[in-house]
Write a structure and sequence with these properties.
By secondary structure, the protein is an alpha+beta fold. The protein is built from 9 helices and 10 strands. The longest helix has 16 residues. The chain is globular and about 50 Å long.
Length: about 280
């Protein structure tokens, strides 16, 4: 079975507090794109994870891969044998703030649960996913949503227009824990919007005063993010430039995918990953 693992975008990301155990509380609007990795899962074979694609060389060893760990935990929780060969075509950069590994693990969990006959009454996939990472619940949900808590509390988001996005990474991997650990300053209240934007301009206007509270800490670790944001903001047709997640990937909002593709040449730099896509609706 071949399944898509879409890139995740934090359209805004607010840090609202911190738990006694040190984990940060968030409020974020999460959407998914039509760009992502691809998993090919073959059942009834010894558990193994292989990788190909442009970013395969950056992937960890199979038994350290999040997909491998997810498969093991699902099999343990359900009391079944973990049998599947999983190949990941890695189209997304690693440690890039777009949930590549989380999305891979999420679609693996859902597909393997179906293959292995594991029902929702046996295993709560979102709870299991949260044990692997805070992006997993949203990636398992797989649709536009508001996320709060440490990422486990999800509510449906507004219906978004199919706007174009230009994803740009300066070729720098950022560890999420390091970005959170570098963050200084206080917390901000949730600021959700209920009205569904009709087009890219309205979406950008709604996001204008809802930023990403991790941007400054990510800039301390990766100053090149500022170059990416400046390139996006000056690109023709770009309504808004913003960092997603813990970085270093940033995105620009365009009227449609064609407009994002047309602006690509103005943004490309040596060593940067630049990809035109759109919000999946």
């Amino acid at each position: 079975m071949t399944v898509a693992a879409p890139a995740k975008i934090n359209l805004y990301l607010t840090i609202t507090g911190r738990r006694p155990d040190g984990l940060h509380l968030v409020d974020s609007l999460i959407a998914f794109t039509t760009q992502g990795d691809v998993l090919t899962i073959t059942p009834d074979r010894p558990l193994n994870v292989t990788c190909d694609g442009p970013f395969a060389a950056e992937m960890p060893l199979p038994y350290k891969n999040l997909v491998y760990l997810a498969a093991e935990r699902l099999a343990d929780a359900a009391g079944v044998s973990a049998r599947a060969e999983i190949n990941i075509t890695k189209n997304l950069p690693v440690a890039a703030g777009i949930g590549g590994g989380s999305s891979d693990a999420a679609v693996a969990l859902k597909t393997l649960a179906s293959m292995w006959g594991v029902s929702g009454s046996q295993v709560n996939l979102k709870k299991l996913g949260l044990s692997l990472g805070s992006d997993l619940p949203a990636c398992i949900y797989g649709e536009t949503c508001f996320a709060s808590g440490i990422g486990e509390k999800l509510t449906p988001g507004p219906t978004l227009p199919k706007v174009g996005l230009l994803l740009v990474n300066p070729g720098v991997a950022l560890v999420t824990e390091s970005v959170f650990g570098t963050r200084k300053g206080g917390f901000n209240p949730p600021d959700r919007f209920k009205r569904a934007p009709r087009d890219a301009a309205e979406l950008a206007a709604a996001l204008e005063h809802r930023g990403n509270d991790l941007t400054l800490s990510a800039l301390r670790l990766c100053p090149a993010i500022r170059d990416v944001l400046n390139a996006l903001k000056s690109a023709p047709g770009c309504h808004l430039g913003r960092m997603t997640g813990s970085g270093a990937t940033c995105f620009g909002v365009f009227d449609d995918k064609a407009a994002a593709e047309a602006a690509k040449a103005a943004v490309v730099r040596d060593g940067w990953w630049v990809e035109a896509t759109e919000i999946a609706v």
